[in-house]
Amino acid sequence: MKQPQIFIPLFFIGLILSGINPKEYFTWFLEVSPAIIGLLILVFTYKKFEFTNFTYFFILIHCYILFLGGHYTYAEVPPFEWIKETFNQSRNNYDKVGHFAQGFVPATITRELFIRKNVISNPSFFNFVIISVCLAISAAYEWLEWGVSLCTGDGGDAFLGTQGYVWDTQSDMLYATIGAICMLIFFSKKHDKAIQYQIQTQ
């Protein structure tokens, strides 16, 4: 499949379903906004830079993670409530899935941009810079969550989603870093094949 347009209707199906009777519309809006902004950026830059289907696929997966978290709030996603109760955990850890993706997907995007635009010529620094970029994105998102919480008070608590865990911010960034590392270790070869195919078929 060369045409990535199939991902757009799948995006809107997920977005619409997540917006049907969510727990809190304000929290839903905050959680799905990054996905909507990301879609707009990809659409407006599509003619200048078309990513591989490999990258678009994982971007869509990340969007669905945001949609699910927005619908239920990250503290109450049902499967992770079951995990919480079954394994006697102190909190619903679905947000850690989101932050893992927050490292994995930006690593995929950054890696493809770096390779196809030849941003870094020295391979010794290649993976280090990618992980650094992902960690910077994760830290910036934590600032955003903090800012929204300060501006909205109780209305932003569900968006912040700490669930009383004092190390939530630090663990979020750790999971994002792990996500970026996992992408580079386990998916680089598949990504390279997808990039090569994209270049050959353009």
Walk me through the structure:
It is a single chain. It contains 9 helices and no strands. Helix content is 73%, strand content 0%. The protein has one domain (4-201). Helix 2 (25-44) runs antiparallel to helix 3, helix 3 runs antiparallel to helix 5 (94-116) and helix 6 (126-152) packs antiparallel against helix 8. It is mainly alpha-helical.
Low-confidence spans: none
The total count of strands amounts to 0
Helix content: over 70%
Radius of gyration: 18 Å
Q: How many individual helices? A: 9
By helix and strand content, what is the structural category? mainly alpha
Largest sheet: none
Cα end-to-end separation: 13 Å
- Would you tell me the overall average pLDDT? 92
Order of helices and strands: HHHHHHHHH
How big a fraction of the residues is strand?
Answer: under 5%
Count of separate structural domains = 1
- What is the 3D shape? globular
Q: Could you write a compact summary of the structure shown?
A:
The protein is mainly alpha-helical.
Characteristics:
202 residues, mainly alpha, 9 helices, 73% helix
Which helices and strands, and how do they pair?
Elements: H1 7-18, H2 25-44, H3 53-72, H4 78-86, H5 94-116, H6 126-152, H7 157-160, H8 168-186, H9 188-201
